[in-house]
Design a protein that fits this description.
- This protein has 288 residues and is an alpha+beta fold.
- It is 23% helix and 30% strand.
- It has two domains: 73 residues, no CATH class; 196 residues, no CATH class.
- The protein has an eight-stranded antiparallel β-sheet with strand order 12-7-8-9-14-5-2-16, with no helix packed on it.
Amino acid sequence: MSSIIRKLGQQEQLNFLLTNRIPRRYLTILMGTISRIKSPLLTKAILALWRRFADDLNLEESKQQQFESLHDCFIRELKPGARSIDMANDLIVSPCDAIIGEFGSIKHMQAYQAKGYPYELAELIPDRNIRNKYRNGRYITLRLKSTMYHRFHAPVDCHVNQVNYISGDTWNVNPIALKRIEALYCKNERAILDLQLTQQNKAITLVPVAAILVASMKFHCLEQTLDLKYKGANKLSCSANYSKGDEMGYFQHGSTIILFASENYQFLPSLRVGQTIRMGQALLKDIQ
């Protein structure tokens, strides 16, 4: 048993070194360049190689089966009806396909990136007016694997009038890194989307967090793509109305969305850490 544990520890160490102790910024920019090369043959070869290391890459739900570039595959759309949205008014649904990470109640303005690894909301969300809405509230971390559908959608009916983009690092956000890098989400590139709801006493905020190979986020309410080359303003005004399930944007490759909800919501009892969830499935229920 001790030899098995030691071997697993060595594998984790190798994974961590290969995905983090490298020039993350330049590798991410390089990957972005390669992914946009328009070559169906090259793309087919890369996808075949990718499948050797990730056997869960499923393109059967994709609207298209052939891709001119790897980027086109990363941001693929799904066939109509591939996801069902729970339209009950008292439910918040998942904005994306994901693996459920840590989730729970916010105490002392802290959330957890992994068991035993807390971070302060003030480090993640600089705007005091936004983060104070979640004192005693709820949080859930949704990790998008590289093979997953990468578009994200509105978890409720809402309005967005600003995107706050925070430039940062590109640490890997896999479970191994989350147990080794303190306040990792607070270090990485991210955006703050404070959703404006019709109910004045309720609040929901999405924090998409970028990672190595993927530090690029596209929001349909903005003309700009937010990535490592972006040099503009951090607070970007916009005006967009979304119904529950409407597409809001996409990641390139895969990353994480942290969803914050005020204390008037509670998690569905069926949720578990490590569970795979699909966009449109219910996460929280309105209890007031």
